[in-house]
Every structure is written in structure tokens, then in C-alpha cells.
Amino acid sequence: MTKYSPYWWEDQPKYIESNGLPKNTDVVIVGAGFTGLSAAITLAKSGVSVVVFDSEELGFGASTRNGGMLGSGHKVSPQEAEKKYGLEIAGKIHKEANASLAFTTDLIKENNIDCDLQICGRLRTSWLPQDHLSMSENLKKLKAIDDFNSRMIDSSKMLESVKTDLYFGGQFYEDHGSVQPRKFHYGLHQMASNAGAKVFGRMPVKQVTPKSGDKQAGFIVSVGNQSISCKDVLIATNGYTRSSLSTYLSRRILPVPSFIITTDEIGADRVNSLIPGGHCIVETRKRYCYYRPTPCGKRIMIGTRAAMHSMSAEKALPLLRKTLSEIFPELDGVKISHCWTGFTGFSFSMLPNLGCHDGIYSAMGYCGNGVAMAPYLGHMAALKILEPNKKITVFEDTSLQTRPYYFGSPWFLPIASVYFKAYDKFDNYRRRKNLSNIL
Ligand SMILES: Cc1cc2nc3c(=O)[nH]c(=O)nc-3n(C[C@H](O)[C@H](O)[C@H](O)COP(=O)(O)OP(=O)(O)OC[C@H]3O[C@@H](n4cnc5c(N)ncnc54)[C@H](O)[C@@H]3O)c2cc1C
């Protein structure tokens, strides 16, 4: 029987929560995912008192629901970034994407976080021949900006990396890796607590109010039936940002769901024959499909955007199953042990942002690429709180935008789902045409 909860949540130690809510603290962090905990670690280690609240059980958000693919990418090409922000900022955006991967990999290694880290590499597969060409162009640009440990793979060599004939070549990122995200989150929670941060679950923050109407004087944070006074507030709620907490942010971050399934154990030999090398794989298809072996090497986990709007995991399961057997026909009919969903947070610029609005800091907008970036930006947010007048990161330049039609309730996402489904069909049509030209 398929369980409708994350595979990662099986057999894990329970979080030990803090007790005794203080009346005052230096910093309150809203959201105890990778962003919030990473910020808490840096602040607490600098001698600042920190209280972190999550509205749900600790480990509820995307940080323990994701695919555990550790990489440096974001969804904006160097050309697009250059057009929008100019050459200098575009270069920094791509350098900092690399820096985020190095930061998070080092954080795990240096602190011996037990989270099944594997530097297994990542393969980005071309759904269409033109995808392969544009990846190759992008790679040249990225290599000109920074050291970029990545290479193109010709379509004739693809079977050495993935046993399917679906793709027109790919790009391999050598330094990318994978983690067990729930274990990574647990490790960050332990580090934050050991550094002196107080972390509370099931404590929804309802309101953040400037003290006596003056944000310089600090804030009163209402949480549950209590309140706490602080100098600074960091909102780290990404795809779980709701208008009840911040109308400003909820108008700027779209909660877009992602869905994942995990197969029953099919054996290490079989997994290895399907994904020789055990790396992570992401497609260029608009459906945004990603898959990898689980850390034990005996199962395959595959995620995709079954819909742009919120939908139950039960409803998404057939599409995920179909996608799996489309890639690996021999897995048709294999049992699915787990199926689940979670919210990613999309910014309109498709880039993350470290912002400050009305004196309240925020770090979010990872657009589905937060395993490396969220701990990094959380750390950067902490540095900004410590030195507010200093420019800390290029992601202060990627300001969050809204749209006149968006008031925080994404009514248009079901329409976007239909659009992307149509786009997938169009992609498939283009693909068939390309194939018939080749044959
Ligand atoms: C299914 C899925 C697959 C993904 N796969 C990958 C992947 O393979 N690789 C990758 O790089 N990224 C992936 N991502 C994205 C990545 O997981 C996120 O970008 C990252 O975890 C964001 O971390 P966060 O701490 O900012 O937010 P979250 O981990 O979502 O934490 C936000 C927290 O805020 C809390 N909250 C909300 N409102 C309040 C309130 N009022 N008071 C208190 N707490 C509040 C929520 O309960 C939640 O726990 C995936 C995401 C999903 C959903």
C-alpha cells in the first residue's frame, strides 16, 4: 500500500524542542526550515539570542519533503540575467549560485552532519535537440564567468549515464550531490540548538508589529496566545508564506506544489543498471521532472510538477507513475511505497531574494532549488542582521516583485496547469517531429 507521506520521514529520531519561551530576544525567526535554522546557527554562534518558530511540527515544510538534490542551479540563464540585471550583477548571481553549493557542502562536511551526503553529480537531460544546443551555449557563458565543473554529454553516450532512449544528450555537473533532506534538517536543528538558539514547533506567528509604531525600536511578535519582544525579525517561510502573516510577501511569493514518488525496493543492481553512477537527473522538459536513487541505492525516487496548483498526492500519483514508466518502461507496474507533495516558493524574477521591508527581513524565493541555496541565504540573512549597512549578497539586488492581478491567493495557477499541460503536449509533438527527421 502506498503511504501518502514523505519517504524521508520513516524511522527518524524525534526533534527535541526547546522549552520556556523568553519574553525578549534579539532576533525572532519565522519558519524552521533550512533557511530559518541556518540563520539561527550563524546568529547564535555570533552571541546573538535567537528564537525560531514554526507553525507546524518541526520538519513540516519543504526542507524535509524535497528530492534531496544538492546543486547550484537556478532557473535563470546567464543571458536572461544579463538582460535584466546587467553584466556585473548577472556574473555575481552565477558566482553566488556556485558559492551556495560550496557553502552547504562544507557545512555538512565540516560539522559531520549525518545526512547521507554523496557527491554523485547531476545530469541535466535534453528533452529536445534545441535544449542541448542552448545548454551548451549556457555552459560556455558560465565557464567564462567562473570555474564551472560541468561538461556536455553527447546523445550517443547517454546510455552510459541513464538507461533510457528519451533524451537528446545532456549536461553533467560534477560537484552536485544528494542528501537525505530530513536528516540534513535534523542535523541543522541540532546545530542551532547546540549553539543556543531556541526552536519551537506548533507555534504559528500571527503578527509582527513595530514597537510603539517605530520599527527602529524593535518588534512585538504575537505567537499562539503569547508574545515576544525582539530587535529584528527574519521571515523564512518560502512556499508556506501566507497573507495572514505578511500580505507584502504573500503577494510576491507563489506557492507552487511539487510531487514525489518512491518505488518499493527494486534492488541495488537494478537501480544501478538504470542509473549507472547513481547521480541525480533533472530534465529540461517544462513538466520539470527529476529523479535519483535513494541513499540505500535500492529504490528510485522521481518528482515532477503534476500540477501548478495544489492537488492531493493521491490525485497526483497516476501521473507520477506514468512519468516513471515513460522513462523506464521496465518499471511499469512496480509498487510505489510513498507519494507526497510540498510547496516550493516561486518569485516572479525566478531568483531568490534577501530583502527588508518595513524593517522586517526575509529570505525566500528559491523556485524549487533550495537544498543548497536556502542554508546559504539563511546564513547571508544572519550576516545582514549583524551588519545591516553592509552589502552582503547579490540576492539583495533581485528584489521581489508582484503583479497587479496577484493578491496572495494564486487563483491563476490552475490556468497555468492547463497551459503547462498544453506546452508538454507541444514539446512532445516537437520531439516526435525531431525524431522522425533523425530516422
Ligand atoms: C517536493 C519538493 C521537492 C523539492 N526538491 C528539491 C531538490 O531536490 N533540490 C533542491 O535544491 N530543492 C528542492 N526543493 C526546494 C527546497 O526544498 C526548498 O527551496 C527549501 O527547503 C526551502 O527551505 P525554507 O527553509 O526556506 O522553507 P521550508 O522548509 O518550506 O520552511 C518554511 C516553514 O515556515 C513555516 N511557517 C509558515 N508560516 C508560518 C508562521 N506564520 N509561523 C511560523 N512558521 C511558519 C512552515 O510551517 C514551514 O515549516 C523541493 C521542494 C519540494 C516541495
Task: Describe the protein's architecture and organization.
The structure is a single chain. The chain is an alpha/beta fold and 439 residues long. The chain has a single domain, classed as FAD/NAD(P)-binding domain (3-Layer(bba) Sandwich). It has helices at 34-45, 78-85, 87-110, 129-145, 181-195, 247-250, 268-274, 313-327, 373-386, 413-438; strands spanning 24-30, 50-53, 69-70, 122-125, 150-153, 170-173, 177-178, 198-200, 205-210, 219-223, 226-235, 253-263, 280-283, 290-293, 300-304, 336-347, 353-357, 360-364. Helix 1 (34-45) links the parallel strand 1 and strand 2 (50-53). The longest helix is centred in the last third of the chain and has 26 residues, at 413-438. It is globular, with a radius of gyration of 21 Å. The protein starts with 23 loop residues before the first strand and ends with a helix. The relative contact order is 0.19. The structure holds flavin-adenine dinucleotide. Residues 30-36, 53-56, 60-63, 65-69, 204-205, 236-240, 245, 258, 260, 303, 342-344, 364, 366, 368-371, 374 line the site of flavin-adenine dinucleotide.
Task: Write out key terms for the chains shown.
eight-stranded mixed beta sheet, binds flavin-adenine dinucleotide, FAD/NAD(P)-binding domain, 439 residues, 18 strands, single chain
